[in-house]
Specification:
The complex is a heterodimer of chains A (about 220) and B (about 375).
Chain A lengths: L1 E14 L2 E14 L3 E5 L6 H8 L7 E6 L2 E2 L5 H11 E4 L11 H11 L4 H14 L15 H12 L6 E5 L7 H16 L3 E5 L3 H6 L2 E6 L2 E4 L1
Parallel strand pairs in A: 3-8, 3-9, 6-7, 7-8
Antiparallel strand pairs in A: 1-2, 1-4, 4-5, 9-10
Helix pairs in contact in A: 3-4, 3-5, 4-5, 5-6
Chain B lengths: L1 H30 L4 E5 L11 E2 L1 H9 L4 E16 L2 E10 L7 E6 L7 E4 L1 H7 L6 E4 L2 E3 L4 E3 L2 E11 L8 E5 H8 L6 E2 L1 E6 L5 H11 L3 E5 H11 L1 H32 L1 H9 L4 H39 L15 H27 L3 H10 L1
Parallel strand pairs in B: 4-11, 6-10
Antiparallel strand pairs in B: 1-13, 1-14, 2-12, 3-4, 3-13, 5-10, 6-11, 7-10, 8-9
Helix pairs in contact in B: 1-6, 1-7, 1-9, 1-10, 7-9, 7-10, 8-11, 9-10
The chains are: A alpha/beta (about 220), B alpha+beta (about 375).
Amino acid sequence: MTAVSLRDVRRDYTVGAERVHALQGVSLDVEEGDYVAIVGPSGCGKSTLLNLIGVIDQPTSGTVMIAAKRVDAMNDREATSFRLHNIGFVFQRFYLMPILSALENVALPMAEAKVPAKERLSRATELLDYVRLGSRERHRPSQLSGGEQQRVAIARALANRPRLLLADEPTGELDARTGTEIISLFQRLNADGTTILVVTHDEELANAARHKIHMRDGRIVDG
Amino acid sequence: MLGVAIATAMLLDMVMLATGMRESFRELLLSQGFDIRLAPKGTLPFDTDATIPGVNAITKVLRTNPDIREISPVLGGSIHIPVGDKDVSASILGINPAVQADYEFLSGRDVTTADAIVVNENLLRKLGAHVGDTLTVATGYDPQTRSYSGQKKLVLTGLVRFIYGAAEQAGSAVRRETLEAMRGPEGRDRASLFMVRVRDGSNPDSVRNWVERQVPNVTAISISTAIAQVDQRLSYFRQLAFILGAVSLFVGFLLVTTLMTVSVNERAGEIAVMRAIGVSRSHVVHQIVLEGVAISLAGAVIGLGLGLITARYLNAILSAFPGLPMAIDFFLFQPIAAWSALALLIVSGIGAGIYPAFRAASLPIAESLRREAIA
């Protein structure tokens, strides 16, 4: 089954007096269970593409389907609910809530989805165990290393059992050894059935994916 | 936070100032149990040197009203006491010690005899005298000829504290008939003030109206009319307190809005990520408004303490104003004042959080993330 389907997607921005064509007719299909890395030079439209798939931005034209549901024209309330239940995000910066513990950070999207307290704590504990941070669940972000914070962010992204995990430069702020841990974690997640799309400049991370998509000047040039 | 605390302190002080003097005055009037004061027509008690003639006749008329329980005529004036080659002046009240409500007795003996005088500490200090001393007291003094009139030898029998006396005031009291005799014909059968106590269950305002009808040459003032007159005289204070309170609240509001706006700007990336992972706009608004209220409350806790300390200090300064009764407080702490200030701050905190909250919730997610990535 197709997890992600884009048809002739364009995204234009206005920066000052200039019109920027960030995406120029992108079409793409990603199957469920796939692990796709999107690579290309800075400014080629990788993050814009990820934002459209993640329903945090809307295309200027074209259609975006996620799990057979058209998402390109959703209003804010629909898009927020769709993201909450279907999409997990991991960013270069981890953006954990500083006043919450690792466990509470992971439980946050579940609280938003109104999962009962007992169930969300049990699920958060399970997820922290999955990312091998079971012993650090009471620690606050400031007490965790960069790699640990990113693993908490990954656990948070998985909280509501999303159909799709989207990651934008997830190893961008990590050293090589910690980056490798995240790469292994992504492989393990994919092996366990999670569909992953990752935007990266990190060759090691890109090479770990099943498919690579190359972009240039707002177009897919290969993949 | 300190700014919010200072604005809170100012707000509390202004709320206390707006109502404090009125409440303090009301408590003072009520504390002595006299419900009505009769002053010479068109004046307030002891506002002028005017006196009411015909004390005995007025007392007789007042006694015909069954709602009136007690009548205490008071004659006021000034006295002069030679000490060495100096003249010490002071105020004096002629009272009936059995029904007076002008002073609290501290030590010694009250004015139970015609030759007794009681004084307050200020006068005692000025005279350098002791209880038991005999003083030569005059009701008149001509500084040109350095001659005294209405002189009488009085025995200092006790120390008292005048309830309506100003902080610096040197005061004394004798029996009313003693003062009348000392003042001669111009003081005979006259009073500066009548204090009237009504029976329990009687309506003081009805009695007041009756008195004004029966005794046309007096102005009868019940506690409620006295407070209304004080309110009128203190309207400047209330307006000032209202304006300064409103300014403090507005400053607090602006501070919290600024703090929250800066906080939202700094956390634009964090908010965008929260929105990206599915946190709703209403949740973001709720969170930011709560933070605004939390800042206001934290400031309020510090500010309330600061406000109380400041009020105490300012009260001490203002209460020392010449001519003001010592017992009057400008800043009177009342729980309602603290609750009012707190309620206003919470409302202000909510208001202050709304703009930054809606701004945060309306941030375009992708654009905020892109800016963060560039930053």
